[in-house]
Amino acid sequence: MTGNPTIEKISCYHCGDDCLTEAYTLDDKHFCCHGCKSVYQLLSESQLCNYYTYNDHPGATRARTDRRFDYLSEPAIVSQLIDYTDDQVTMVTFYIPHIHCSSCLWLLEKLHKINPAVHYCRVDFLKKQLNIRFDHHRISLQQLVELLYDIGYEPLISLQDVIKEQSAATKDQLVQKIAVAGFCFGNVMLLSFPEYFGISAYEHSFRLFFGWLNVLFSLPVVFYSGREYFVSAWQNLRRKSLNIDFPLALGIAVLFIRTFFEVATHTGAGFADTLCGLVFFLLVGKFVQKKTYHHISFERDYRSFFPVAVNTIVDEKEKPVPLADLHTGHRILIRNNEIIPADAILLKGHALIDFSFVTGESVPINKTWGEIIYAGGRQTGEAIELEVIKPVSQSYLTQLWNNEAFNHKQDNRMQTFNQKVSKYFTVVLLVIAISSLLFWLPTDINRGIAAFTAVLIVACPCALALSTPFTMSAALSIFDRNLFYLKNTAVVEQLAAIDTIVMDKTGTITTSDNDNIRLNAQLSDEERELVYNVCMHSNHPLSRMICRYLGTHKRLNVTDLSEAAGRGITASVNGYQVRIGSEQHVSGYSRNTSAGTKVHVAVDGNYKGYFAFAHQYREGLKNINGLENDYELYLLSGDQDHERFELIRFFKTTDKLFFNQSPQDKLDFTGKLQEHGAKVMMIGDGLNDAGALKQSDLGIAVTDNVNNFSPGSDAIMDGRSFGKLPAFLKFSKDTVRIIHASFLISLTYNFIGLSYAITGKLSPLFAAILMPVSTVTIISFTSLATHFAAKKRKLS
Amino acid sequence: MSVIYFLIGCSVVLALIFLTAFFWAQRTGQNEDLYTPSVRILLDDSEDADTEK
């Protein structure tokens, strides 16, 4: 190739980023930085270069090369992180966000080639977890984490251990219960066929044998697989409420008892296959409903985003201290890119704090000596020393979690349709059963009991119990495909019941990158310097954006500075008078210009031009206009109100836009709306919205990367699908309508069954056919209807 | 026809063996990660075998 070599782009052999220099080469391979090169070096020394053959550029960029895992030498912290330890080995599970391709898998399972002290490594690809068993005499946990870091797989270590919570949640043996129920269902069905087809009189002993076998198979179904229905029904009875589990448990019990008696007294074949089928289908419904997202956590709070430990300074020496042990009065050292975990006073160093996690505002704020810095800020630049003035849990940001909204568990904040209906259903069912018993009792006791039990069997709300899980799981997978992740199936119904939507501004309806300033002026270098110096002295977000846009300039002496809120700044720099701000402020008159925020500049009375800020609202924000008729829309912003007029385009009126809202204000506002009977959905992104997300009836966290931090919420939405919000809301209503329809279908089946049952003449064959048929109808109706609805809303 | 007692006994025992096998697989966590093995099997470890032998 004869072209100019500077035009040809060379990408890093390790991570695939563009190489800006040719300084890092090894074995004819180019690297973008020293970090990437050293990973390659380490791997080639251990003969693990196959890593690069499975995928191109599998690595993560290593431009950042500061390692800080000193806190992993603290035994108190180590014991929290490991899964198991004895004299010989220790086992630990890490969450490694970078796991993304087969190369990652290959390399991480070959750790023992780099360090033989590692006995065993297993990757769980979907959960992005690495399970390691190692000899802790030969390698410490800190060294192990450093090794992972050196090969480019930094584990994410946080106090709130998502991994352990996950493993604790999956211990209810549902799969085993389904296996047992399925096994018995199959066998019982086989053994019941002879009865249905008719057994001749001389084969009577077979009938007895089959009958008792059926009873035997029903035992594990009732007492193992179906046990939770009895437990749940009993618990609800004691709380004096009727849920759907009550008629189900009643149905199971009646089925079993009647089967047992019929077999024991030779009066019939019993309903063993109906019983087994019922429990089997019910459990399958339960299984379908339980969809888990391994890579997303809905329960995160500040602990998962704060560091595990901080470096304190004791007697001029650094000592890592677990976050929980951090007291008032501790002197802490915060390095570049570290998060300040508690409210503290700045003692030493130049603080430039990025509060993007707290406020969504990504432009760093200058703090001077003696100022209080609130927890949650991230230091950028040199290391600083601070003195803690409030414990972690009492800090400005974290005290939100002490609010009562976080204390009571409110998993299902609204009653689902199923819960509402099952109450009446149970009552009606009992009334019909008892009245049919009373009707036959005077004439024929046996027939009365037969009718009573038959009603309970036939009306057992199997189809009703299945309609919600199957519809919801189908809906959930539709949402999932559209990058909208719901915590559980009940959230779909909550979504449909919402009538008020509250939105956060920064990060939620705007995108996080702010690089969209356009300079519409001819400024000389000297003038740029002047503007930079004036803006340096203002805390207004626009000033800070201008500073960032202009880059770093020489500091000049600024005098006579005056800032008129909402209008602009006037100051003298180097003998020039500089005016920056609104057109009215700068040039004295105002032409009514079109949309878009502009900051005008004049030096010594000469108008120079303006900075134009194109606000990066999320694509599809205009779609929310359509929501106005059906929902009350509010906007709560932590920012100043300089975007008020921009936002009218989307919200039509300004009465529902609120600015300068603190995290606590947002929570209170949500609570107030609820007091007036509104069903509030809060959409937010940062930690500052966490309180309102929790307080609301349905909290949705918007994020650009679902693996990143997002506050605790009921649903997590990928920023790219924000524009689909109206479609999501409509679809959730469709889903509820489908549940209502399938409820009607199952009621129809129940009426057909009941008309036979109350006469007391329910044949086992009829029950055995009715139950699966109704189940299959419901399952196919719900999944077909859900997909049809999704297609209608253009979501599939 | 009494052979039916024997045949049904056999079939139930056979089915029970499968059920136990499933329980064992479940208990030892073989169904926990259903995706990673499908990737793992595509990675060859020939070079690995050379160095270890």
From TrEMBL, chain B:
Signal peptide: none annotated. The keyword Transmembrane helix applies. The chain crosses the membrane at residues 6-25. InterPro entries: Cyt_oxidase_maturation_cbb3 (IPR004714). Pfam families: FixS (PF03597). The keyword Transmembrane applies. Keywords: Membrane, Transmembrane, Transmembrane helix. Coiled coil: none annotated. PANTHER family: FIXS PROTEIN. This is Cbb3-type cytochrome oxidase assembly protein CcoS.
